[in-house]
Amino acid sequence: MRGLEVFETLARTGSVATTAQELGMSAPAVSQQMKNLSAALEVELVDASRRPMVLTPAGRLFLDQAKVALRALRAGQRNLTALDLSDLSTLSLGVIEDFENEVTPLLATRLAEAMSQCAFVLRTGPSHLLQARIASRDLDMVIAAAGRRAPAGTTALPLLEDPYILAVPKGTDVSGGLKAVTGMPLLRRDLDQIMGKQIEVWLTRMGDVPAKRFEMDSNQSISAMVAAGQGWTITTPLSLLRGGRFAGGIDAHPLPGEPMARQIMLYATADWTGGIPGQIAELARELIGQHFLEPGLEQMPWLGDSFRVLS
């Protein structure tokens, strides 16, 4: 299993050093794992003569199978270390809207299976409202984007690094950076949202704040309008993947100039001591990786390790 994990990570990063750092290994140990795996398969998986390293044709063929195998192995590992929430009497959890279609239903199902005698409350919403609700103790835990500071009286467990990217109508030439889109309106996020505030701060810092014509709190509407050629936006891989049905009309590019990212965190009220928040965070990381990280890096390999699950 470790050899498959090393191979999967090396295929994404192209670097032994980066792979070692992500997996908490030494560089020689990474190289040895790859040698062992190649020897077992009797074929070279990686062309180590190129920088960054690239997969051989055999490696590309094997990668999809390795991912399937890893999912199955991790599922078996989960079953051996199942969530132990049987002693809980109540749990109220808030989850950011970004996960509503993929992660939240699976997370809720897994939690319900582990809480045989628990009164369970689940709420979804934008990050700034979820943070307000945990600060007022309306919720025990929330999964939300980090703001300037953590909600009062909470501890934070990191889940995902989600970099900001440029999203434009398909075929738009952005070789000139933001100047290339000055003829189109910026489709802004609601400025009450954490994303909206962070983007506005970035635009101000870059010295280029377009006129305010559109401001929306609907991710799907923004994606639809970009795909229809009605404007451009600053978004994140996570948000872009949510608008998947509009992906055919959108080109994504690295954010010009100074990079910026948001972090998705699990916040728990300070009275939640012990391992339960950590168990829920680990389950959330696994689901995020499966449903967002892997497809995101397949569609946008240039993201590299700027889009990653945080341990």
What secondary-structure arrangement, pairings included, does this model have?
Layout: H1 2-13, H2 16-23, H3 27-41, E1 46-47, E2 54-55, H4 57-80, E3 90-96, H5 103-114, E4 119-125, H6 127-135, E5 141-145, E6 154-163, E7 165-169, E8 187-189, H7 194-206, E9 214-216, H8 219-227, E10 233-235, H9 237-242, E11 250-254, E12 261-269, H10 276-299, E13 308-309
Parallel strand pairs: 3-4, 3-5, 8-9
Antiparallel strand pairs: 1-2, 5-12, 6-12, 6-13, 7-10, 7-11
How would you characterize the overall build of this protein?
The structure is a single chain. This protein has 311 residues and is α/β, with parallel strands linked by helices. The protein folds into 3 domains: 2-80, Orthogonal Bundle (Arc Repressor Mutant, subunit A), CATH 1.10.10.10; 90-161 and 263-309, 3-Layer(aba) Sandwich (D-Maltodextrin-Binding Protein, domain 2), CATH 3.40.190; 165-254, 3-Layer(aba) Sandwich (D-Maltodextrin-Binding Protein, domain 2). The protein contains 10 helices and 13 strands. The strands form 4 sheets. A 6-stranded mixed beta sheet has the order 4-3-5-12-6-13, sandwiched between helices. Strands 10-7-11 form a 3-stranded antiparallel beta sheet. The protein has a two-stranded antiparallel sheet with strand order 1-2. The radius of gyration is 21 Å and the shape is globular.
